[in-house]
Amino acid sequence: MKMTTALIVAASALALAGPLHAKTIDVPAGNNAQSRLQEALITAQPGDVVQLGAGRFALSDGLSLDAGGVTVRGAGMDATVLDFSAQKGAGEGLLVTASDVTLRDFAVENTHGDGIKSKGANNVIYYRIRVTWTGGPKETNGAYGIYPVSSSNVLIDGCKVSGASDAGIYVGQSVAITVRYNYVEQSVAGIEIENSRDALVTGNLVTRNTGGILVFDLPNLPVMGGGNTLIEGNMVIDNDTPNFAPKGNIVASVPRGTGIMVMANDGVTVLGNTLANHGTAQVMVVAYPKAFTDARYNPYPRNIALGYNTYVGGGDAPGFPGGAQLAKAFGGTLPPVIWDGLGGPKALLPSADVKVLNLNLPAQGAGVDQAKPALLSFTAPPMIAVPGNVGAPARLEERIVR
Known about the structure:
Blueprint: H1 5-17, E1 24-27, H2 33-43, E2 49-52, E3 55-58, E4 63-65, E5 71-73, E6 80-83, E7 94-96, E8 102-109, E9 116-119, E10 124-132, E11 144-149, E12 152-157, E13 160-162, E14 167-172, E15 175-180, E16 183-185, E17 189-194, E18 197-202, E19 205-207, E20 211-216, E21 227-232, E22 235-237, E23 258-263, E24 266-271, E25 274-276, E26 281-286, E27 302-306, E28 310-312, H3 323-329, E29 337-339, E30 348-350, E31 355-358, E32 374-377
Parallel strand pairs: 1-2, 2-5, 3-6, 4-7, 5-8, 6-8, 7-9, 8-10, 9-11, 10-12, 10-13, 11-14, 12-15, 13-16, 14-17, 15-18, 16-19, 17-20, 18-21, 19-22, 20-23, 21-24, 22-25, 23-26, 24-27, 25-28, 26-29, 27-30, 29-31
Antiparallel strand pairs: 31-32
């Protein structure tokens, strides 16, 4: 049986229009918010919008969303607040385990665990979301504010996070990531890209954290080999909060006053950023410092390119053992870039005239007490290569302009 041209056009139009029975599920603030909101998330079908009203939702337990293609939308990050101050469990505020989900225009406050976590959720969007621990920096705060993991095609845009005891915005074991136009403060790490590839971190304001932007690759995880990442056009300013991460966390070793830190990655470009007033270093490039047994893991930085960035102040209060004595030996302040000297001749590719302190550590895992520091200056740099094919796909944009 042959379809006529008219039938083909009609069928195509229906497909583009999305699910035939998509609906808006209104959930106002008020009594029984926990049960009403969770019920809406359970009954939502692909194409539906769960519309959160203005006001404060007093919640006593975490929420979950398992249906793909759903939008959860509030009245604004300061108008719709999901308040987890009375949360009984230690889990995240909202857990998303489905793809093609859009989260936008609401706030999450005072979760006992992570703020919002999405796992295995491809094509996920966080848009104008606020996650906050209102008591300020505390070790007992949740680890991550916005936390997509094990995903492809991630867009985090226009969000605000404060108070995370690990990372305000954390993307782990994922690919094709855009983190842009966000404001992150008073967390241990402002933004962290870990064991991930093809990430674009651009246009963010990261301030008053322990460390501003971290790009890490760690052993013993299902996905490793992080890299092909572009860190460009960010304002990384005054990251001077004392480290309040729980002991044993990898970020607990990040020195107070670190601007951008790249560890054990391959192909990271840092370009066109403004970095100001970081007592330890504006940029640090280092190998993984701990012992490991994972034979798949490469602990060294490779092809870390530093383009032309603006550096203001800094280097006057190094937050690592022996840092004060080292700064004194260099006239009171350290250079803007610190490299541990590991990874070979192509570990660090800096732009012209940037001063680099090479610690010349003898081996991976060696402490700063074994350093033989030397000042480097590069006047004829190699060509700075900008990674290609970074960031989330452009088609995700369509879902935030509706």
